[in-house]
Amino acid sequence: MIRTVSTTPYTDQKPGTSGLRKKVKVFQQPNYAENFVQSVFDVVADKSGATLVIGGDGRFLNREVIQVAIRMAAANGFGRVIVGRGGILSTPAASHMIRKRGAIGGLVLSASHNPGGPDEDFGIKYNIANGGPAPESVTDAINACTLEIDRWLTVDAGDIDLDSDGEITVGDMPVEVVDPVEDYAALMETLFDFDAIRSAKLTMAFDAMSAVTGPYATEILERRLGFAPGTVRNGEPLPDFGGHHPDPNLVHAHALYETMMAPDAPDFGAASDGDGDRNLIIGRHRFVTPSDSLAMLAANAHLAPGYAAGLKGIARSMPTSAAADRVAEALGIPAYETPTGWKFFGNLLDAGKATICGEESAGTGSDHVREKDGLWAVLLWLNILAIRGESVDTIARDHWAKFGRNYYARHDYEGVETPRADALMAALRASLGTLPGQQFGDLTVETADEFAYTDPTDGSISRNQGVRILFEGGSRVVFRLSGTGTTGATLRVYLERYEPVGDDLDRDTGEMLASIVAAAESIAGIAEHTGRTAPDVVT
User: Fold this and answer.
1) Which amino acids are annotated catalytic?
2) pTM above 0.90?
């Protein structure tokens, strides 16, 4: 029943920070998705008889590629496929499913926070047996296969019914269609004090952004925690996310921000992204940056049952602010600084070196899975609010009074012509040796380097992970090209100013970062290299 289909390689299938992301029309080319899936399967050792998890965020092309992948899995000797009903599995739920069911890995079909629809983005990511994204050694092997592939395997079978729970056989392989929410919701109940959250009688607004988190938030927030019907907005996953950009930031979740800044705002506001692994946290009249959220969650995690024994360590990506480092120091636990990409946290979590991890790009999570987890962060915030009996604003002010404040913002220059972006980074690298000691306004460069990371668990080294300019006093600017876009290059500029305890702890962020912004322009020549005089998105 196995059929071999001849093919030729595509040269643009190198996975980025989180899998392969391209425009839908690219994936719709003959054999394009099949080539990449087969390359993944060719790299997976011991797949014969093994279980594979498949699911995605419901975006356009999700169902079609799932059907193709199921038939290919049957032809490649997998013993069982588990797929979420409707083709739905949030990224953290997929990670949990892989771990719970002892799967060899999983295909997560998503382009995360990128827009969806026939003219927008699609993606495929492979997660390994620990539930986390494949490490660079695996993605490099996948890329090598994509450059040499000459065939892909399938079985002659029809599409299965993705909308009904149960088991069906494709080829000789059983395919199990499961409730995508139940196992994940049950896991959350083991980590957080649902009784305390219910008893606190909090009010909230949650924007699922017409993306995958809708069914999860409706089940957990409205049904299990008793929040009022309608608490979850835009709760139905749509193939085009309702025509909106499913990125939980102040630009794309502006309606939620307006709700939370209104005089009659609820106690708590939150949002999640396309595949459910990112979060936006807003209290009544108080936005909390992802970097600050990581630090505040770590400082208060012991209030939730799942973390009552304390944390083993805190890990953050290099561009994320150093706010969490100060919490780790106060708790007497290690703080780890890794490259961008959740895959770099996996070894730390598996080795028991870290419990909570976070990225400035609105991803936060813990050792309960091996992915960042938007709803997990929301529930931990709710648990903290319920136990402390204080507002988000009060908790934030209390935190800064104890640790000082890292004013922080990220400026994104999207769709920059790749040669221009590369030239900017090359010029930055060439200037690193001469920057220390130079003064830009009231800022003096202390050190400048290109970040490299040595994994403390296996000794592997990741180089060229972003240019860091550190100023005297704890402020800094970081320059990095993102690996999550699908057109051109995205230049990310991370701006951070540290104000110690007793100084200006509640000023306007833009005002406090103005001198850092000016220094970044002077150092990198952003306008000269990109032709842009302002970022496309500020978060």
Assistant:
1) 112
2) yes
